User: Which sequence fits this backbone?
């Protein structure tokens, strides 16, 4: 097991290197001159321009820039924002908790909805329960995040006034307020996740209910309810962990949209702010942070999966 | 198609549990299958409807999609403006009709790109096996380590919004899906006898793979294509909602919603109607995909 974890950690190295290269090369395709962004819109003289360009290392070939970026990255230095001159690392680290809170809340909400809904749909296949759960799943899949967010803001925020429509309160300041602000964004991302997971849990349960061990248990006289909750559900949940892990990628990707709509100060919103401002060190840092989170979560899920189901081979 | 859906029922009496099940329960099952296929039919109708709208946009439009009329801002649905007007007084129905052109064209391009790149990669990976397979699959895994939506955002931000960049940014994130699905089907097909037979007749390997094996892998590809259309529509509208798609005044569905944000309370229809159209389109493609999957894989009814 320890060996397995170590090997998976080692496999992370090429993955992260590739991801960093991908991010670096895409972002260097960005149109617009970063030096110009730094100097602002007003007039500047040519020597000043060249000096700054040299100082930022932009006169060197791209591969050299990449390697020095990597080198600094290894020391935890993501460079400086072109706009605010702040260290990118500080900005991203400051924004990170908000994204994690939102992702965790959505993950919990999504799982709490999806597992009972999927189980019920499978156990009561082709009943009203099943159709309701599947309609919910279809709704979650067809309705785009951003529109669902607008509808919630319109309904619960503007008309009913039950929830705030914008903003964020730090949990250490006021936990109740934090939850209040968290509700709508978490519902949006949680529903998105729940729809996929519900379908998966249902399909997996149906698959499991057909297997021989269920028949054996039933033949022994074990009540159906017992078989479902003690055996089938457990086996299905093992498989569901992988899907839930993959959903984290969607949550992180979707967080850009949802954080922007709800003015939630997370890394996802930072990505867009950096895009709009053409602040490419910030964009690089933020995207890299999200990609790393995703990779680490997936590693964690794989290890968890292995631990839950020892039959899975070590390779 | 009809045969495949009937099969599970002809087999039902063999299954031990089926014998105990009442006529009511069984007819309910039959109903479920019909309903599912009806849903697929509904999906097909929606998709055909949207496609026709896109093709016939100039004929269907009642106004000029770009013409502003500040005297008639945020008008509610009426006989003159069927779905009302937006914050610039532009006719929402007309803009939605023209918006379908953008959505469908971007989705078509993105899906085509993903198929053209993903299918050969997967086919090669599955057919060649060995180190080629390992190399390709590792590459795909690395690529998947990157959240897709984030990649699309970064790519579009880097390259600017044109049809080509949108095809690329949205399509590229779907490539791994096709590669994996095709690889799995090719792996299961390549040991079959018809492949052996073709090889004995001296047919070149290239032809065996791309004509014979791949034509037997169409079912999962078709399912993926229709689900992928839904995905592409979703990503395109998200990108334009975020202001990364076509710039205003393009009648892109996502952009229409984004422009509606400031006027939601005043005129909810501006925010509700475009969202309904996006959802309906995504739903249509999803229903077709689900229906196709059920038809191609009737196994799941043998409970």
Assistant:
């Amino acid at each position: 097991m320890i060996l397995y974890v170590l090997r998976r950690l080692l496999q992370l190295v090429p993955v992260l290197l590739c991801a960093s290269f991908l991010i670096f090369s895409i972002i260097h395709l960005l149109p617009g001159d970063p030096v110009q962004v730094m100097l602002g819109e007003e007039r500047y003289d040519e020597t000043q321009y060249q000096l700054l360009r040299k100082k930022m290392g932009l006169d060197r070939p791209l591969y050299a820039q990449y390697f020095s970026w990597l080198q600094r990255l290894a020391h935890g230095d993501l460079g400086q924002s072109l706009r605010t001159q702040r260290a990118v690392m500080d900005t991203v680290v400051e924004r990170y908790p908000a994204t994690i809170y939102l992702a965790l809340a959505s993950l919990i909400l999504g799982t709490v909805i999806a597992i009972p809904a999927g189980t019920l749909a499978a156990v009561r296949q082709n009943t009203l329960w099943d159709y309701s759960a599947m309609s919910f799943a279809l709704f979650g899949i067809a309705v785009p995040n951003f529109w669902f967010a607008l509808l919630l803001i319109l309904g619960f925020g503007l008309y009913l006034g039950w929830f705030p429509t914008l903003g964020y309160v730090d949990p250490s300041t006021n936990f109740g307020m934090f939850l209040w602000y968290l509700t709508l964004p978490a519902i949006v991302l949680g529903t998105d996740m729940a729809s996929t997971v519900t379908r998966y849990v249902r399909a997996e349960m149906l698959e499991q209910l057909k297997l021989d061990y269920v028949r054996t248990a039933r033949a022994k006289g074990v009540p159906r309810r017992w078989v479902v909750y003690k055996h089938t559900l457990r086996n299905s949940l093992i498989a569901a962990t992988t899907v839930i892990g993959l959903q984290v990628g969607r949550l992180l990707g979707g967080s850009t949209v949802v954080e922007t709509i709800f003015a939630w100060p997370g890394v996802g919103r930072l990505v867009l702010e950096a895009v709009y401002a053409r602040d490419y060190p910030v964009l690089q840092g933020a995207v890299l942070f999200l990609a790393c989170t995703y990779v680490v979560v997936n590693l964690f899920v794989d290890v968890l999966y292995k631990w839950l189901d020892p039959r899975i081979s070590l390779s | 198609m009809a045969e495949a859906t009937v099969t599970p029922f002809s087999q039902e009496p063999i299954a031990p549990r089926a014998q105990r099940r009442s006529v009511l329960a069984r007819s309910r099952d039959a109903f479920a299958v019909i309903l599912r296929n009806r849903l697929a039919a509904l999906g097909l109708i929606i998709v055909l409807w949207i496609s026709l709208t896109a093709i016939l946009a100039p004929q269907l439009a009642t106004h000029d999609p770009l013409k502003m009329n500040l005297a008639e801002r945020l008008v509610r649905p009426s006989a003159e403006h069927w779905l009302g007007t937006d914050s610039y007084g532009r006719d929402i129905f007309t803009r939605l009709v023209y918006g379908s052109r953008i959505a469908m064209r971007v989705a078509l391009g993105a899906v085509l790109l993903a198929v053209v790149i993903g299918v050969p990669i997967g086919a090669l990976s599955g057919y060649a096996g060995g180190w080629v397979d390992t190399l390709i699959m590792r590459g795909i895994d690395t690529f998947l380590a990157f959240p897709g939506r984030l990649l699309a955002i970064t790519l579009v931000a880097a390259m600017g919004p044109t049809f080509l960049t949108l095809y690329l940014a949205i399509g590229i994130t779907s490539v791994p899906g096709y590669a994996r699905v095709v690889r799995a089907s090719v792996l299961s097909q390549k040991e079959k006898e018809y492949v052996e037979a073709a090889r004995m007749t001296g047919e070149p390997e290239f032809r065996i793979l791309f004509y014979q094996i791949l034509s037997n892998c169409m079912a999962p590809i078709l399912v993926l294509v229709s689900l992928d259309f839904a995905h592409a529509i979703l990503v395109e509208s998200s990108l334009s909602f975020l202001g990364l798609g076509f710039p205003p005044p393009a009648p892109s569905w996502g952009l229409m919603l984004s422009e509606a944000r400031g006027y939601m309370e005043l005129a909810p229809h501006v925010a509700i109607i475009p969202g309904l159209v996006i959802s309906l389109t995504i739903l249509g493609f999803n229903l077709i995909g689900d229906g196709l999957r059920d038809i191609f894989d009737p196994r799941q009814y043998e409970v």
Notes: The longest helix of chain B spans residues 92-128. Residues 1-19 of chain B have pLDDT under 50 and may be disordered.
